[in-house]
Amino acid sequence: MEKSLLAPGHRACAGCAMPTTIRLVLDAAGPNTIVVSPTGCLEVTTTPFPESAWCVPWIHSLFENASAVASGVEVMLKRKGKDTNVVVIGGDGSTFDIGMGSNSGMFERGHKILYVCYDNEAYMNTGVQRSGSTPFCVNTTTTPSGKQSQGNPRPKKDMPAIAVAHKVPYVATASVAYPVDLRKKVKKALQANGPSYIQVNAPCITGWTFNAGTMIELARLAVESGLWPLTEYVDGELVGVKKVRRPKAVQEYLKLQGRYKHLFKGAQGPDLLGKIQAIADANIAKYKLVD
Amino acid sequence: MSEKTTNMKVVEGSYAVAHAVMCCRPDVISAYPITPQTHIVENLSQMVADGDLDSEFLTVDSEFSALSVLIGASACGARSYSSTTSQGLALMYEVLYNVSGMRVPIVMNVANRAVGAPLNIWNDQQDAIGARDVGWIQIYAEDVQEAVDATLQAYKIAEDSGIRTPVMVCMDGFVLTHVYEPVHLLDKELAREFLPDYKPANILDPAHPMTFGAFADPSTFTEFRYQQFEAHQKALVKIEDVAREFEETFGRYYGGLLDGYFLDDAETVIVTLGSVVGTIKDAIDDMRSVGKKVGLLKLRSYRPFPVQALRKALKNANCIAVIEKDVAIGGEAGLVTDLKSAFYNSSIRTPIIGFVAGLGGRDITIKDIRKIVAKAEASRGRIESEFEFLDLRTEIL
Fold it and tell me: Taking a C-beta distance cutoff of 8 angstroms, is the pair A67, A6 a contact?
């Protein structure tokens, strides 16, 4: 196997999906790539000065401006006649929330940039606070479950739909548990004539609380339950969906995670589990996940 | 007048500055529209549209993104330019620190304007003075010509390998951006001679992968900051050198760090920055004609703050009045506080009194200047009021 472009020795948690995701992305993108990252787990675990885990050129500026920084990189590369991949890799906090304006601007201006969101569904770097990506009922430190709370009261923001609405030519969802699919999507995205967006389900051991050895299994269950459909949009059209042979009940996925623990204890649990199952069922119907 | 400077035209200040930017040949320009900066970027857009300026012009979603784009572009070797003012500069605040900390030599014209609330689009200098600690060099222009010349000088200062620090060229909004006056537009070839192409030592390049923007823990953070501090100390010399080099090429010089007007024998000295200098010079001419020994110290470089040069230039004064268009609410105001601090450990014990004037576009008149001089003179015996708002309309309070 060729040397990874993300060197070992970074400081991510054992059982974290993020470094695996990044390695898969970089494998597919290759060394002729410049990566831009917003502030987050990725940045703090890979670049404590004077060390760096990055074997491709990498730049970090702030939390909310990675897409703008990448726009400057892309424009200058084009000016110099360089055909180098420009890839933003950021977490869901910067992607869904604080960087939204900058992302929207980059999408709308049509820069040839691949934006990869490793989505762990909360602000993990600051200690598991709710983000716009946090799914319904998730226990976070700012949407804790309690006597009068069942965790996050709102559904997850549909970021891929927002990218599609910008007429981003290539939009896909992917999962760390499906590496062949992820690599293929990265390669396709880099061929797009304009911006592209890939949102990768990336379980966080600290925020989701699960057994480190089950990270990949967990990510696979998200797909198999219908909660994380693997989709692909080209020029706004849904062109690809990963079929699920026999959908698993959402409980199979939820019960392995501490962030949903309260649903398996309280009186309201069954009702809420039913609501989460309804989200999965809606996905199954919408994306025709089952033949 | 030098033969090198015959290209004099009556143009709007914003056009003159845009023309200067064109002569600096930026690779990437990124800006967001805000009054009174708009004419600068509109002119630049037109120059790009007409093929007179070979730059990439990015229209972005906010001032925050405008400056962020330039970080990426500069990291790939671009000479970069932006312009903003007021609320836009305030929105950039986080990026301002990032640009200076990453040692990105961006040059930005700030069309100085009040910062709301209340909303006010007119000139004062609260925006830039409020950003005095962000690590950028700040040069203030008296008139359009100085804004033009300082823009070219700014790149030479910013891109110096020992300095690598961004520069704000501050020009009073409307007063300078929208005024039509005769200007020596820069000669493109002379500008190229004066300012060679930008060739940074380190760029984002897959052939030599490097990491930009790593985080620093307590064992190194102070040293990063110290290096920025040191760069500003070097800039004290560089700003003067560049002003002299500019004089050699273009035949114009009006001080590097600061300039004086009837300063040598002045007993009462007014210290200020920006376009109000013109009014003060007229007032001084009047007062000199009746034998009053009044002089002016115009500060060009507010950051770095030229402590030694100020001590030297003001050593003969026996009273000093600072006039500034900003206020540090809860304290006094930027310039007067810094000036007092510069003198505290020196032998100079001249009274210094501060005046806040011209906020939100209110005119500062010759009459106001006379009033200030009278108050300054009275302070020689005993300081009645150390700091005040000039011409406060007490009837509407």
Answer: no
